[in-house]
Amino acid sequence: MPLIENGRIGEDAWSFIPDGEPVPNDRPVIISFERWQAERDSFEGRNARLGVRLKSGTLAGAIAADLDRFSLVALEFPKFRDGRGFSTARELRERYGYTGEIRAVGHVIPDQYLFLVRTGFTSVEAPEGTNPDSWANALKEITIAFQPSLDDTAPLSLLRRKLKVG
Amino acid sequence: MNHIAPGARAGIYHYDEIDRQFVAERVEQFRKQVERRLSGELTEEEFKPVRLMNGLYLQLHAYMLRIAVPYGVMSATQLRKLAEIGRRYDRGYGHFTTRQNLQYNWIKLEDTPAILHELAEVDMHALQTSGNCVRNVTTDPFVGAARDEVVDGRVYAEILRQWTTMHPEFTYLPRKFKIAISGAESDRAAVRIHDVGLLARRNDKGEAGFSFYVGGGLGRSPFVGKLVREWVAEEDFVAYLEAILRVYNQYGRRDNIYKARIKILVHELGLEKFTQEVEEEFARLRGPKYRLDPEIVEGVRQHFAPPPFEEPPDHSEALERAKASDPAFANWLAVNVAEHKAPGYAIATISLKPAGGIPGDATCDQMDLVADLAERHSFGELRVTHVQNLVLAHVKKDELYDLWKQLDAAELGSANAGLIGDIIACPGLDYCALANARSIPLAQAISARFADPVRQRTIGELGIKISGCINACGHHHVGAIGILGVDKKGTEYYQITVGGDPTLTTEIGDILGPAVTETEAVDAIEAIVDVYLANRTGEGERFIDTLRRVGHAPFKERIYAAD
């Protein structure tokens, strides 16, 4: 599936290994959170990078203690309307200080891309046949953000312009 | 784009270049979204929330476009534009809503980009008037004018308007999210039936702070908002709200649309556990990034500086003369006019509830007239109330008679604010795709039955609220008399509740008995009124107090005894 990064289709170095299938040791892979919980010892001493995929009902706190083991956290959107991932990503960044890749997987539309970036996502798995222009445009079409987030840490952001009034 | 600056005289937030650029970009974004839908790139399922966040609903007969009126305050220039749009793109009228917005009920999809463009000319839009996001923040329609005001709610509502606009984390919430702020001793914003209700107050040092009520709401499971924190200091205002929304976004139910509002989360977690989650999140969020700097508040407050009041004597001879000579005016004065904080001024409610009329509807000619009157008598500014009326907040007492005569000539002079004719009704089955029964014809029939202004005033304070389905857009749960339309095998029936109260002493009404037909409903309301009048102690006892004292029995007996 096309991977969107920085507004462009990029190379995906990662692959998701479904539960039950053998995990290759020589390349970056993503496993499910459930598999991580059940087989975590088997990943001791692994050299290749490891990523974990969280269902939308699994919140940031569930993986917080293990974050140093993962170079990537993939957050699932079962439906694009299910916005829990926006909070999970933000908690991973701001509450737990996670600096690795955060990827949106599942059902996400370009109209959400700006929100994803602003809440700390670094990449998005888009559906086959997606229109790359829509993703590129999504980062450019709205240039005003009224509140602070991951991309703008100034206190209260744009409200500060009101200091100039009068 | 050709911006028409709103009159600079009244307390209205003036867009700056950043606000304007944002709206322009957002209009263009929607135009592209419509194109992507038409090309098939967006599925109907994907387009729907996008469309809703632009205020566009698909109703029974046509599209409905809901225009945001931030905290219900607008300029005469803006109202004139709304009239112009209603004339050109709708059928010559608009409908003011319980969320202090305006909606057009007969819009064509292909006209919407042009309408949004025209709205942008007067710094208006339809953003976030629908969808599972934070909706338009509402407040006291007497804000900045009421004699009992402690804190000016517009300042904080405007801060929230900006804060919640395209919030990256909270635009795909489990369900819609409504916030109301009241900063006066009387609650005229029904704060405890909102997802978050804020009571702005001052401590003994004179500093502003907020009581947070969370989890109020009507619909199929009505709840009164619960006090989550008694005092949140002004500097923590945004942080605390952010904490509440984050807890809701993470834990709110997404498996069942009817259980997705925050009221269900608060109910299921329990107040203690919910509060603990919010407090934990708040403790962590609190810090420089979210601190609301007093200087920012001051900067926003300057937009709402009081208009240049003259200093007329508080006692108006002209008013006294008019009162003595014209009983109809005297009646309107007693019912629709409230005390202003500035001497010599008054707050006038313009009723959109003429006898037999459609609650909340105004023709475009009426809108033009109100815009003119706002310019002549109220510094070019007006408000929409959550009971679907309009307010001119700063009228010189000397000019009230002149104002009323002009209103009355345009069927806008009904003296029924807060009385039995001041009915809230949702659009119901005449327009709405969700409704089970019509609301409007029943509202018309009841207001026609009680048309006599003297009879209305004799009855006194008595709010009737009608919803055409369980979603309760007509707030029937908190009507002193509430009416809920239900469908029984294809026939419209109406279930009557009594004892609801939307003010700070919030109560959800109780069902009085089996549902009745439309004709029976009007008679039943009259019977309830008769029983009240027969039982009340003196002129002063309100319906709600008589009901609390004598209970349901005498009312039930009268309505259902004949069966």
Number of domains of chain B: 4
Specify the number of helices of chain B: 18
Helix content of chain B: 25-40%
Q: How are helices and strands ordered from N to C of chain A?
A: EEEEHEEHEHEH
Helix and strand composition category of chain B: alpha+beta
Quick one: biggest sheet of chain B? 5 strands, antiparallel
**Fourth CATH level, the homologous superfamily of the largest domain in chain B:** Sulfite Reductase Hemoprotein, domain 1
CATH topology term of chain A: TIM Barrel
Q: Looking at the chains present, what oligomeric state does this protein adopt?
A: heterodimer
CATH first level of the largest domain in chain B: Alpha Beta
Q: Give Rg of chain A in angstroms.
A: 17 Å
Classified by CATH, the class of chain A is: Alpha Beta
Q: What is the total domain count of chain A? A: 1
Sheet with the most strands: spatial strand order of chain B: 1-2-5-4-13
Average of the residue pLDDT scores of chain B: 94
Q: How much strand content do the residues of chain B show?
A: 15-25%
Tell me the CATH superfamily of chain A: Aldolase class I
Q: Fraction of residues of chain A in helices?
A: 10-25%
Overall pLDDT level of chain A: 92
Keywords (chain B): 4Fe-4S, Heme, Iron, Iron-sulfur, Metal-binding, Oxidoreductase
Domain Nitrite/Sulfite reductase ferredoxin-like (chain B): 63-122, 359-409
Protein name (chain B): Nitrite/sulfite reductase
Domain Nitrite/sulphite reductase 4Fe-4S (chain B): 130-283, 423-559
Task: Give an overview of the whole structure.
The complex is a heterodimer of chains A (166) and B (563). Chain A is an alpha/beta fold and 166 residues long. Chain A contains four helices and eight strands. An eight-stranded mixed β-sheet of chain A has the order 2-1-8-7-6-5-4-3. Helices cover 37% and strands 17% of the residues of chain B. Chain B contains 18 helices and 20 strands. In chain B, the strands form four sheets. A five-stranded antiparallel β-sheet of chain B has the order 1-2-5-4-13. In chain B, strands 3-14-15-12-11 form a five-stranded antiparallel β-sheet. A five-stranded mixed β-sheet of chain B has the order 6-7-8-9-10. In chain B, helix 5 links the parallel strand 6 and strand 7 (179-182). Chain B is globular, with a radius of gyration of 23 Å. Chain B starts with 16 loop residues before the first helix and ends with a helix. Residues 1-7 of chain B have low confidence and may be disordered. The interface between A and B is large, with 44 and 47 residues.
